Amino acid sequence: MLPAAPAPAMLKLQGIAVSPGVTIGEALVLDAEGFRIPRRFVERSAVDTELARLAHAVAETAREMGHNRDRIHAELGAQYAAIFEAHLAMLHDPRLQQELTTAVRDRNWWPEYAVSRTLRRYAKVFQSLDNHISQRAHDIYDIEKSLLRNLLGERRETLAAISQPVVVLAHNLTPSETANLDRRFVKGFATELGGPGSHTAIVAEGLEIPAVVGVGPFLADVSGGESVILDGNEGLVILQPDEETIARYRLEEQAAKTVATRLGRLRDLPAETTDGVRIQIMGNIEFPSEVEQCISRGSDGIGLYRTEFLYLTSRREPTEEDHFAAYAEVVQAMNGKPVVIRTLDLGADKMLTETTSEEERNPCLGLRSIRLSLRQLPMFRTQLRAILRASALGDVRVMFPLVSTIVELRQARMVLADVMEDLAEHGIAFNPKMPVGMMVETPAAALMLDAFIKEVDFVSVGTNDLIQYTLAVDRGNKEVADLYNACDPAVLRLLRRSLDVAAEAGVPANVCGQMSGSVMYTQLLLGMGLRQLSVPASAIPEVKQACRSVSVADCRLIAEKALAMDGAREVKAFLRDQLRRLHAQTVA
Amino acid sequence: MAADSRESLHDANAPQSGETISCEVVVAIPQGLHARPADLLAREARRWQSRIELVADSQRADGKSILDLLTLAAEAGTRLVVEATGPDAREALEAIGSLFDRNFNEHAGSQES
Questions:
Q1: A133 lies in a domain?
Q2: Which residues, given as ranges, of chain A have pLDDT below 70?
Q3: Which of A93, A149, A567, B82 is surrounded by the fewest CB atoms within 10 Å?
Q4: Is A512 designated active site?
């Protein structure tokens, strides 16, 4: 039989760390439909009313199940209707009903909480069985969902309505859901799905809240309301933390604040190496609001302004004015410092608006980024018009993502020239000399860069995609995510080649993937000749600190050694070691 | 199978109410004790006043609860002990044993539940 709820033991779950920081907070659980199931208690005097509400929800759910059974019976036959018959039997299980009633009457649990806690306990037991009965867990979740829907009714609370600090735990969060999280209240989040470098992860980093993804199934263990610890540095979710652990994390939270204050003092100091080489540190942003975080940390400009946000948060295609308003805000705030705006870098599969009718089998290798823009010319022209108009307000540069052939680059430049002509005809101000650059994020672009370089004003290496395409690894796929490694020699060779070709041509180069934001790679990148890094705002102080503690001469030696190695593991160990030495020096 | 083990029951002394009597059955349904037979079993068990429990190895389930019965995850061939405690324990065991004997009417192909 099911054990009565045991004294909860601390549970540490390992996921993938995608946004740093630690936080302790009240869990808010979102199930597949985004319900919120808070732990609340019922006043003693209200117990009967709440029990009646529960009974009503059970009756209503039974009515729906019966209705479904009859409908399916009529349409598909008895075999198929049997599933609803089973749901009904489970719903009316006397033991379950007894447990629910006891939870409300004796423990004074809110019916929603009682339903979720009790059914999830059953689901968990079923999931743990290693035979086909484990599939019944889906039925339990179905029943839970129906009951909750009937209980919550119109009072359903959504993410948008959060009004107190919480840690969000969800099966999955879409980038737009993540983007819409209210930063005043959401202290961090963890999801069952997801991998490093996913769009959701990037958004979390932009929001500067700790985040852990790819934890695997764990929501059955939580109901919401209890304290959880989220460790975005180590990728841990800790349920039912004990006092000692809470105390340790409180200290860590405090220490992080102290370090942030210390790094904050770097704001007005230049990122200059000990042998006097000035490094440009730019910020990566997704939302105009992040500009403030870049400026306050003394960034030299915006090295990557991702514009996907504009396309992800609305069901309609953004207008030229939507684009322009966002760009103008960023450019004006940067006050003459460079702002590199990247055109749409999304797959057709991610767009909310209807862009393609065909389902793609392999979206990563499909119609996305510049390919999509060149296919959707009116949409592309709208974005380019807005970028050009913003170029009259400051140092704006445009960058095309995922270029893999020279034809794409030429076509994109032609569309740009055409839009310029159009603007000029209408007497609309723009910078006719606006620099044009491209992302180097496919092996094709890296290998052919000597040809591309003659037709661009700057390049930026996007390591996230370059790693994915070079190593043929889907970074969102948990099964192979461990193969996704910035230290892989194949990646390093393409990176070095790109930087060498750019240097030889005298074209400025930048690295804007996650690699540049991690201090583990700073010495390697400087040693390979990189003089400009674009990193998330949160990483600016630390990267600046790293640049200020090294000499380019030493970095060159480190890069040479790393590039001579055969395996990713060896490279990683070597770079870790170098970083440790650097830290030891800095502290000494 | 189940019938044999129930023979011993008839030899037992008439149980006092409050005394537990038991018999052994074997799951013969190819898919194991899945949702439909578990539902039939729970419905049958609920017809009786006695407390009814099914035991597989160390695991114990409330015979009147489909959810609890499913947690036994009893596959085809599993031996189960049915225990009944109460005034109508003997009749309850007879009825449940007979369900297993009839293989829960699985082969009838109908969904009369």
A1: yes
A2: 1-8, 31-38, 153-161, 175-176, 179-180, 197-199, 314-315, 348-359, 586-588
A3: A567
A4: yes
Q: Which residue has the tokens 């193969």?
A: A483
Give the length of chain B: 113
Q: Do A82 and B111 touch (CB under 8 A)?
A: yes
CATH number, domain containing residue B28 = 3.30.1340.10
Name the active-site residue from A199, A487, A547, A555: A199
Helix (H) or strand (E) holding A306: strand A302-306
**For chain A, how many structural domains are there in total?**
3
Residue A283, burial from CB neighbour count under 10 angstroms (0-12, 13-18, 19+): buried
Residue B3: its pLDDT value, please?
A: 41
| Nearest partner of A384 among A429, A310, A323, A328, judged by Cα | A323
- Mark which of A258, A291, A315 sits at the end of a domain: A258
Long-range interactions of B7-16: CB distance < 8 A, separation 24+: B9/B90, B9/B93, B14/B90, B15/B89, B15/B90
Chain B residues lying within 8 Å of A138, measured CB to CB: none
Q: Which is catalytic among the residues A487, A512, A547, A555?
A: A512
Catalytic center residues of B: 34
* Longest pairwise C-alpha distance within chain A: 81
Q: Which residue has the tokens 């030891």?
A: A584
Partner B contacted by A78 (CB < 8 A): yes
Same domain, A120 and A62: yes
